[in-house]
């Protein structure tokens, strides 16, 4: 047993986290999506949520300041609405994770991942009129935060908004990372209070920092050498398959 898991489960969790770190380094997001889509297939859903907390927090903090602290602060000021709304949403729903039945959590996670992956695979990108950006930004952040408090995933609405707002690629990755970092801080503190992150699961989450960091370093290197469009497409296909598996578990037990 390592950090409360059998050796085979721990090693498999390391492999999943390494892959998720690689994807995040290569395309800028999807670490919690991958981890929460796969880890619950061989460990309790709350343990899976705890396992991703520290890797998501640390990798997003690193990615947000990769080009310096000044650009990160500028992005935070520019998109303060979506960051604030995300934090509020997480604070509202985080306490409910300890009372949510596991099958319901599987269904919620599966629906969210499948919806996001399908939206991206379809190539559909909404267009937001300039006058509507402020309320839509608040709405996207709040919806993401409400979902993130119980699932550990608050990125999809923010990513859809940034794509619709036609934010430049480099700034988009940086803004996503700032949003994810702030959300991760709030979520981690919230789950210290709920008990999801406890003495045993905190060790597991800390150990996941190693494969996450290795994967992210490899992902950074791969970013310039590979076709990001094709890589992102295959990643979304794999996420869709993982989401279908979660839906199956939620419906059939």
Entry summary:
This protein is mostly helical.
Tell the overall outline.
globular
Discrete helix count:
12
H/E element order: HHHHHHHHHHHH
Helix content: over 70%
Task: Outline the low-pLDDT stretches.
Answer: none
Oligomer: single chain
Head-to-tail CA distance between termini? 26 Å
As a percent range, the share of strand residues is under 5%
Number of strands: 0
Radius of gyration: 17 Å
Give the biggest beta sheet.
none
Keywords: Cell membrane, Membrane, Transmembrane, Transmembrane helix, Transport
Organism: Pararhodobacter marinus
Pfam families: TauE
InterPro entries: TM_pro_TauE-like (IPR002781), TSUP (IPR052017)
Folded structure, characterized:
InterPro entries: TM_pro_TauE-like, TSUP. Keywords: Cell membrane, Membrane, Transmembrane, Transmembrane helix, Transport. The chain crosses the membrane at residues 29-58, 79-98, 104-124, 136-155, 175-192, 204-222. Pfam families: TauE. Belongs to the 4-toluene sulfonate uptake permease (TSUP) (TC 2.A.102) family. The protein is mainly alpha-helical and 253 residues long. It has one domain (7-252). Helices cover 79% and strands 0% of the residues. It is built from twelve helices and no strands. α4 crosses α9 (169-194). The longest helix has 26 residues, at 169-194. 47% of the residues are buried. The mean pLDDT is 86.
